[in-house]
Amino acid sequence: NLVQIPSRGITKPLSIEEHTLFFDAKAGPPNPEAEALVARFALLDQQKHAVAAGNVCPASEVEAAKLNDQDDNNCHQLNAAPAYFDGGLVQMKVLGEHHVVSTR
Predict the structure, then answer these.
(1) pLDDT digits (tens, 9 = 90+) for 41-90
(2) How far apart are CA 42 and CA 58, in angstroms?
(3) Which of 6, 20, 25, 80 has the fewest CB atoms within 10 Å around its CB?
(4) Which of 103, 88, 91 is nearest to 21 (CA)?
(5) Cα(60)–Cα(90) distance, integer angstroms
(6) Contacting residues for 80 by C-beta, under 8 A, at least 6 apart
(7) What is the pLDDT averaged over residues 22-37?
C-alpha cells in the first residue's frame, strides 16, 4: 500500500484533509474521486477481496478492536488485502515534494 506522510521522520499517515500527493486537499473543494483514489492506495481494495473470500471487514472501530492482528476479518491490519496490487497509472497533479511510505 501507499500512504502520504508529513516527513521522513514522521511515519503516521496524513489525514485526507492534509493530502497533497494525488490532489491538493487544502486548495479546493472536496474531491470525492481523488479521495477514493487515496483510500484505494491505502487499503488496496481489500473490502472487495474480503467479500470474495467470505470475510467481512469490521463496520466500526469498536468492532475492529475486538479482533486480533491475525484475524482474516481485521481489515485495519490489511489482512484481507491481496499480496499484489496494480494501482494503474496515476497522473500527479500537484507539484512539490511528497513523502510516501508503505505500511505493510
Answers:
(1) 998 888 888 888 888 888 777 887 888 888 877 777 787 788 888 989 99
(2) 16
(3) 6
(4) 91
(5) 30
(6) 46, 47, 49, 50, 53, 55, 57, 72, 73
(7) 91
Alpha-carbon gap, residue 72 to 30, rounded angstroms: 33
Rounded to whole angstroms, how far apart are CA atoms 104 and 38? 16
pLDDT score for 37: 94
Q: How many residues does the chain have?
A: 104
Distance of CA 104 to the CA centre of its chain: 11
Q: Which amino acid is at 17?
A: E
Range 52-62 burial, b when 16+ CB lie within 10 A, else e: eeebebbeeee
Q: What is the mean pLDDT of the chain?
A: 87
